[in-house]
Automatic annotation (TrEMBL):
<keyword id="KW-0547">Nucleotide-binding</keyword>
<dbReference type="InterPro" id="IPR044140">
    <property type="entry name" value="ProRS_anticodon_short"/>
</dbReference>
<dbReference type="GO" id="GO:0006433">
    <property type="term" value="P:prolyl-tRNA aminoacylation"/>
</dbReference>
<keyword id="KW-0030">Aminoacyl-tRNA synthetase</keyword>
<dbReference type="InterPro" id="IPR002316">
    <property type="entry name" value="Pro-tRNA-ligase_IIa"/>
</dbReference>
<dbReference type="InterPro" id="IPR004154">
    <property type="entry name" value="Anticodon-bd"/>
</dbReference>
<dbReference type="GO" id="GO:0005829">
    <property type="term" value="C:cytosol"/>
</dbReference>
<comment type="subunit">
    <text>Homodimer.</text>
</comment>
<dbReference type="Pfam" id="PF00587">
    <property type="entry name" value="tRNA-synt_2b"/>
</dbReference>
<dbReference type="Pfam" id="PF03129">
    <property type="entry name" value="HGTP_anticodon"/>
</dbReference>
<keyword id="KW-0436">Ligase</keyword>
<dbReference type="InterPro" id="IPR036621">
    <property type="entry name" value="Anticodon-bd_dom_sf"/>
</dbReference>
<dbReference type="InterPro" id="IPR006195">
    <property type="entry name" value="aa-tRNA-synth_II"/>
</dbReference>
<dbReference type="GO" id="GO:0004827">
    <property type="term" value="F:proline-tRNA ligase activity"/>
</dbReference>
<dbReference type="InterPro" id="IPR050062">
    <property type="entry name" value="Pro-tRNA_synthetase"/>
</dbReference>
<dbReference type="InterPro" id="IPR002314">
    <property type="entry name" value="aa-tRNA-synt_IIb"/>
</dbReference>
<dbReference type="InterPro" id="IPR023717">
    <property type="entry name" value="Pro-tRNA-Synthase_IIa_type1"/>
</dbReference>
Length: 562
């Protein structure tokens, strides 16, 4: 017995107009079709239809995580500051963290991701190598105070993530846990009906080594990736953000500039008096004639925006692609065989040992100044810049690369021992000596996947869900008066009894035209109409995607839909 949801009695309300602030297709459609409703910036209510889609995605994720032997847990979202202070992320995350205090003045945060807390959990629970390997996951609400929470549920400040963590005693074990997750993610995204690419990526604030992203190509995406049309090479151009020379506290006194708010590439563009969209392609920033930072269009929050803000109003000037010409000595774009993060180090002749320098820092939202070349970093490592243009040769086969926009739907990391070192996570090894644990962490944007699917599957009429994810299997429309409604309810009940999930539009006083439009907008895969031939017990079955129609009796319809 599956649910029969009657529109006359449920909170399924469509809107005629797009929400004024909506930029992306999924944002417009999910709001108009009554799936989600905005509470405040980046914070959303899931209405009945939206909740069903969200739950369907969670179910697929859960089934595939269970299938690789991961165990589901649920950790708190409200977390004490100390573990994040120990890992350095209380600082590193900067404005991205929601921070709060309890009545005694104790400091807390709302979890943006849970490496620290899982490490502590396993430290508490596991004592021997026999307790490992272990893989744990949760589907939970995460909090990040994103600078630009636009695009609806694509980028929320509160959002649903599946995050999992693996704990192994050996590097081979970690590689295996990583491979299991990678394979599970492939199954998940295939079942969700998402078109996706796996690209090599950078670890960013997570730390650690190997890392890959699952990207769903879509115009609404905020990531840019280089894709080879001739072979399977693909890499995220976000790597460029992290390609600037690493500067850490270990390297000597590094002063961080304040960032009062989070300036963006748009701010820089405004400062430079150029349109953000057009001109910020392959951009170098020169300060007093010296190149200090570089960015590409997909990275809309690259450090250089922040840098520009701080160095305003004096010295920032824009350099375009022509500045590269004939300047191989200066900066050269290079895509390495391992992806964009493995770029060639370029020695800049202008950076002599002992020179004070301004550079990108490896902390979010900060820049370091008074960094001294030769003391704080190897001079040869100084500028590590990637400039990828459409048509650049693919590093693995030489064909011209394509640049595409995409939505990051998943991200897997081999963290290694970073967090285990911080929290001294050891277990007793086979030899009776303590062994340091090695970890992986793996995320899927569950609520983001709703929007990504909407982006990829919608058409001019509205949403158009794959069957496994749709909020119902069939949308029954009573297109007429009492007779039609009676037939619609009758067939709905029979379908429900046969295990088919039904949404039935039995609203009185709503014209068939409006009901048809709503059915297209809501996007359930099959639409069953009780219309003109209801007296004969004949219905029309329409396929939402192909538009194909056929006339069927009630029994035939039930046979077809079960
Ligand atoms: P992005 O680059 O889009 O900001 P991220 O790299 O910061 O994402 P991760 O820390 O890798 O995100 O988190 C794992 C997954 O959680 C991401 O791959 C993405 O699908 C999802 N996610 C991250 N931030 C958000 C958000 N603000 N809203 C919805 N989903 C998100
Ligand atoms: Mg992010
Ligand atoms: Mg990312
Ligand atoms: Mg990521």
């Amino acid at each position: 017995m599956a649910q029969v949801q009657r529109m006359s009695r449920s909170m399924v309300k469509t809107l005629r107009d797009d929400p004024a602030d909506a930029e992306t297709l999924s944002h417009k459609l999910l709001v108009r079709a009554g799936y989600v409703r905005r509470n405040s910036a980046g914070i959303w209510t899931w209405l009945p239809l939206g909740k069903k889609v969200l739950d369907n995605i969670s179910r697929v994720v859960r089934e595939e995580m269970d299938a690789i032997g991961a165990q589901e847990v649920l950790l708190p979202a409200l977390l004490p500051k100390e573990p994040y202070e120990a890992s350095g992320r209380w600082e590193e995350y900067g404005d991205l963290l929601f921070r709060l205090k309890d009545r005694k003045g104790g400091e807390y945060l709302l979890g943006p991701t849970h490496e620290e807390i899982f490490t502590l959990l396993v430290k508490d629970q596991a004592s021997s190598y026999k307790d490992l390997p272990v893989m744990l996951y949760q589907i939970q609400t995460k909090y990040r105070d994103e600078a630009r929470p636009r695009s609806g549920v694509l980028r929320g400040r509160e959002f649903q993530m599946k995050d999992s963590y693996s704990f192994d005693t050996t590097d081979e074990g970690l590689a295996e846990s990583y491979a299991l997750h990678r394979a599970a993610y492939q199954k998940i995204f295939a079942r969700l009906g998402l078109d996706y690419r796996i690209v090599s990526a950078v670890s960013g604030a997570m730390g650690g080594s190997a890392s890959e992203e699952f990207l769903a190509p879509a115009v609404a995406g905020e990531d840019t990736f280089a894709d080879c049309p001739a072979c399977d090479y693909a890499a995220n151009t976000e790597a460029v953000t992290f390609a600037l020379a690493p500067v850490t506290a270990e390297h000597g006194p590094v002063e961080e500039l304040d960032t009062p708010d989070t300036p963006t590439i748009e701010t820089l563009a405004r400062h430079l008096g150029v349109p953000a969209s057009a001109t910020l392609k392959n951009l170098l920033v020169k300060v007093d004639g010296e190149i200090v930072a570089v960015g590409v269009p997909g990275d809309r929050e690259v450090d250089l925006g922040k840098l520009g803000e701080h160095l305003a109003p004096a010295v920032v000037e824009l350099v375009t692609a022509e500045d590269f010409e004939g300047r191989d000595d200066l900066v050269r774009g290079y895509v390495g065989p391992q992806g964009l993060e493995k770029v060639r180090y370029i020695a800049d002749p202008r950076v002599a040992p002992g020179t004070a320098w301004v550079t990108g820092a490896n902390k979010a939202d900060t820049h370091a100044k008074n960094v001294v070349a030769g003391r704080d970093f190897e001079v040869d490592d100084y500028l590590d810049v990637v400039v990828v243009e459409e048509g650049d040769p693919c590093p693995s086969c030489g064909a011209g690369l394509k640049l595409d926009r995409a939505i990051e739907i998943g991200h897997i990391f081999q963290l290694g021992r970073k967090y285990a070192d911080t929290f001294q996570l050891d277990v007793l090894g086979q030899q009776g000596k303590p062994v340091r644990v090695t970890m992986g962490s793996y995320g899927i944007g569950v609520s983001r996947a709703v929007a990504a699917l909407a982006e990829q599957t919608a058409d001019e009429q509205g949403l158009c869900w794959p069957k496994e994810i749709a909020p119902a299997d069939v949308h029954v429309v009573a297109a007429g008066k009492a007779l039609q409604t009676e037939l619609a309810l009758d067939v709905s009940e029979k379908l429900g009894a046969a295990g088919v999930r039904v949404l039935v539009d039995d609203r009185a006083g709503v014209s068939p035209g409006v009901k048809f439009t709503d059915a297209e907008l809501i996007g359930v895969p099959k639409i069953l109409v009780a219309g003109r031939r209801s007296a004969e017990g004949v219905l029309e079955l329409k396929d939402r995607r192909t538009g194909e129609r056929e006339e069927l009796t009630v029994d035939e319809a039930i046979a077809r839909l079960t």
